[in-house]
Amino acid sequence: MSLKDFNKKTFSPLSLRTAVSSAVFITLLFAGLQWIGMGLAWPQLVLQAAGVFFISFLVVYAVTNRLHKERLKQLNKIVKNMSRKKFDDYDLSESSDELDMLIHRTVKASDSVNKELSRLNKIENYRKEFIGDISHELKTPIFAIQGFIETLLNGAVHDDDVNELFLKKAMRNVNRLIFLTNDLMEISRLETGEMKANIKDMYLRDVILDVVETLQYKAQKEDIEIHVKDFDKNIQVKADRNQIKQILTNLIENGMKYNKPGGYVEIGINDYKKSKDKLLLYVKDTGIGIEKKDLNRVTERFFRVDKSRSREKGGTGLGLAIVKHIVEAHGEKLFIESTPELGSTFSLTLTRSNNVLV
Ligand code: ADP
Question: Which helix (H) or strand (E) holds 50?
Fold first, then answer.
């Protein structure tokens, strides 16, 4: 009997087999006892034995069929649903025998298959979306470069009024491609787990001052002041030094990019109220801020509130996605608070270290 006709048939080969073997056993037992005890003549004995066989067969068949049928049907339904990629919630009775146990295990297997399928679907969608996003992001600068070079080749190269300007514009787009590939490589290494966090005790103030120093020139050019709020230089945290530098660079650069001339970016630490073992590292700016509806989306890959402003400032739309990845890889939390027109504060938890470094 195939699984397909399982539900339709009332006849159960499993119950039949159980009934025949039980009936044979009961009949033999009966006949043996009768023979020893009463010394019945053969014809009488055979007749009685046939009767016992028949009755015990019917009783065992009816009982086993009743005991197994519903549960076998349920098992069949679960397996059938699984093969059709349907995963319902099943009502499970208390486990009382092997069949119940088998049903429980099949339901568990169905749940695992369901979870695994959703995970694979998610990865597949992510991959498709990622490839779509990358192609879109690459297309814009490549077409721009193509346009400028074509114009130059078509004669503009001899026009001293525009040739340098077009070359500069082409160069700006080449730089965009470079930023984009660097950020893509970074995010891909983070996502594949190739870039593992090398967590060690480190002095937090040192790292902040290091990053600020490299960004100071850019800040001056943009008329933004970077200010590090004073805190104990002996404070240490457990983190990957390079990755914390990357986070700070991305957050401070954003604080500058989305700021107003004459604005400032402040970096400092606060206590983390929920745990004494952690502190909050924050980067606060006096910039354009982010509307509430966009707050949850800014850490998505390629999400920008204002595409042209981001591009004009050399943004790739990956900076905050990288920050989020690193924070999560450290097992820490990222918080974003912002008021449009007034500014934003990005803060992350870091685990304090009490070891003394030499
Ligand atoms: P981008 O390369 O575009 O800066 P990010 O991932 O770093 O990409 O940021 C995503 C978007 O979030 C930005 O395009 C911008 O719209 C917004 N954003 C990020 N940081 C700030 C900030 N400090 N102030 C205002 N908006 C910000």
Answer: helix 42-83
Residues with CB under 6 A from ligand 1: 250, 254-255, 257-258, 285, 287-290, 298, 303-306, 310, 315-321, 344
Residues 214 and 271 both lie in one domain:
yes
How remote is the CA of residue 339 from the centroid of ligand 1, in Å? Answer: 14
Structure tokens at 336: 């974003």
**Same-domain check for residues 252 and 304:** yes
Do 259 and 341 share a domain, yes or no? yes
Q: Are residues 345 and 220 in the same domain?
A: yes
Out of 28, 56, 86, a domain closes at 86
CA 317–ligand 1 middle distance (angstroms): 7
φ, ψ dihedrals at 246, nearest 5°? -60, -45
Percentage of residues of the chain with pLDDT beyond 70: 95
What pTM does this model have? 0.71
186-198 tens-digit pLDDT: 888 887 777 788 8
Residue that terminates a domain, selected from 33, 59, 86 = 86
Mean pLDDT, rounded, for 340-349: 97
| Per-residue pLDDT tens over the stretch 239-251 | 999 999 999 999 9
**What are the CA-CA distances from residue 354 to residues 99, 200, 202, 203, 337 (Å)?**
56, 12, 10, 11, 29
pLDDT higher than threshold 50 for residue 358: no
